[in-house]
Automatic annotation (TrEMBL):
GO terms for molecular function: hydrolase activity. The keyword Chloroplast does not apply. Keywords: Hydrolase, Signal. This is Alpha/beta hydrolase. Belongs to the peptidase S33 family.
């Protein structure tokens, strides 16, 4: 997921709903007969690959694929998906390996080159590594962009301490939901995980492949699980990294994130306390936490640089919950503001991590459209208010910020589906990877998914807190992935976490200490 999560008390789980009537119809239409041996399909539409090389990825190719807007009306309106490919070079190929960075709303085109270069050469050589922008995203057409300027600073304080602040936030999210309906009413019923999974099946046919392999991060794990549910006999390998809890899609998963991100933020503050000689914020983690919230309170009255109020501060520090390689930069900014009384590094950190670029209007629009369509959200704002204040009492770091990020779903006009039950006893063994302290997709989600995918193996990064752990510098994890992609064989295992970063002298530097800077730049945070 593009959005927050972390640590643990027992998760509140909804029972995974069975497919809705519409989704059940999807399964009936697109699932091959049980036990049928897949055969290579003639390409559904000729893919014309053209060179789009970059200095880093000199063999990268690009193409586009037409798919039905409504898969139940294949002769109706067509839309296009933007694709990339790094072709296999081995004499014998294991077929396509589709890669997805998550979101929903994340562009996957750049991920193909990264994965092909990060895997061992002998493994990458066996696969056509395929990146794609899911429907509505990036270079796919049409693209969604509901509300340009939705994140323009300074926004109302995310914590609604009075009725006026709450109403200002409500007006803002209602406006976004209304703008989506006004601009994209014709496509919103078809922007969702099931439709995206059906696109993958169309892509498989266009590739002429009997089976595809799939490697998904974050939300991409859920998309992969849904595709595998619809087409278990079309799956060759399935790698799911930083795993969504399929039983909480999506309201409960976001509440779990709130608790998880708060714990991860406390881990960051405890790390700051370890380096008092560098940052001067104290040696007691609780005292450092008090100073962080004092900074937040001060910004309510006087936003830093006229840009960074409380909501923007949360946006700036939330990426530290995704990747601890950002901690030194965030600590420098915190220290400069609190100790040196210099707001400039905080503004610079906001512009780097928190400020929303124009392209993010697309990713957030797709994020919202998918999440609001995938499953039902409470429509009674009183329920949201009660749940958020209850969670905020124990997890104040991101609860309300996360609520407003998802709150357009309370006012969404497109009717929701029911989330499919991804339980699957027909797959080849899948490989799941999960850090125990992951914030965006808490550890319990991986356990839940493992229980639903019969025969799957779970590789745990013990003590790790980053979101997206494979191909980010942990040799133990990377070897497990490579071995699985070679042979399809995997077993449960535990790998130690990488070392935490060390302070760095340069405010703008992102150290390579823990690895993974390139990967986390591709996975992003909140689009």
């Amino acid at each position: 997921m593009l959005h927050p999560a972390k640590k643990r008390g027992p998760l509140t789980k909804r029972a995974a709903a069975l497919l809705s009537v519409a989704t059940a119809t999807v399964a009936a239409v697109v699932t091959s007969p049980a036990g049928a041996a897949p055969t290579a399909a003639a390409p559904a539409a000729a893919l014309r690959w053209t060179g789009c090389a970059t200095p880093r990825y000199p063999t990268l190719q690009c193409a586009s694929l037409k798919v039905p807007l409504d898969h139940d009306q294949p002769g109706g309106r067509q839309i296009s998906l933007a694709l990339t490919r790094v072709p296999h070079t081995a004499a014998t190929s294991q077929g396509p390996l589709l890669v997805n960075p998550g979101g929903p709303g994340g562009s996957g085109r750049a991920l193909a080159g990264f994965v092909a270069s990060a895997l061992p050469k002998d493994v990458a050589a066996q696969y056509d590594v395929i990146g794609f922008d899911p429907r509505g995203v990036g270079k796919s057409e049409p693209t969604l962009d509901c509300g340009p300027g939705h994140f323009t600073p300074v926004r109302p304080d995310s914590v609604p301490l009075d009725a006026q602040t709450e109403q200002a936030n409500l007006d803002r999210v209602k406006s976004f939901a209304d703008a989506c309906q006004a601009k994209h009413a014709d496509v919103l019923p078809y922007i969702g995980t099931v439709s995206a999974a059906r696109d993958i099946e169309t892509l498989r046919g266009a590739l002429g492949a009997a089976k595809v392999s799939y490697f998904g991060y974050s939300y991409g794990t859920y998309l992969g699980a849904v595709y595998a549910k619809l087409h278990p006999d079309r799956v060759h390998r399935l790698v799911l990294d930083s795993v969504v809890d399929p039983g909480g899609v999506w309201y409960e998963d976001n509440l779990a994130q709130d608790r998880a991100f708060d714990a991860r933020h406390k881990s960051f503050l405890a790390w700051v306390a370890q380096y008092d000689e560098k940052y001067g914020l104290g040696t007691d983690p609780a005292g450092v936490e008090e100073r962080w919230y004092a900074m937040r309170d001060a910004l309510r009255g006087t936003p830093a640089g006229g840009k960074v109020g409380p909501a923007e501060l949360e946006d700036t520090y939330m990426p530290g919950g995704y990747y601890n390689g950002y901690w030194p930069v965030l600590a420098e900014a915190f220290s400069a503001y609190e100790v040196a009384k210099d707001p400039k590094p905080l503004v610079a950190a906001y512009e780097r991590f928190g400020a929303v670029e124009p392209s993010a209007g697309n990713s957030y629009s797709v994020y919202t459209a998918v999440q609001c369509r995938d499953s039902a959200w409470p429509k009674d704002w009183n329920q949201w208010r009660a749940d958020m204040w209850r969670t905020h009492a124990k997890a104040p770091f991101m609860t309300w910020n996360n609520a407003w990020y998802n709150a357009p779903c309370a006012f969404w006009k497109t009717e929701p589906l029911a989330a499919p039950d991804v339980s699957n006893a027909s797959l080849p063994p899948a490989l799941l990877l999960q850090a125990t302290e992951d914030a965006a997709t808490p550890f319990e989600g991986a356990l839940s998914m493992k229980g639903k995918l019969k025969g799957s193996a779970l590789v745990v990064e013990e003590g790790g807190g980053n979101h997206g752990v494979a191909l980010s510098g942990n040799k133990c994890l990377d070897e497990k992935v490579a071995a699985y992609l070679r042979s399809g064989q995997a077993s449960d295992a535990t790998c130690p976490a990488q070392a935490a970063p060390k302070p760095t002298p340069a405010t703008r530097a992102v150290p390579p200490t823990a690895g993974g800077t390139a990967l986390h730049g591709l996975l992003g945070f909140r689009g």
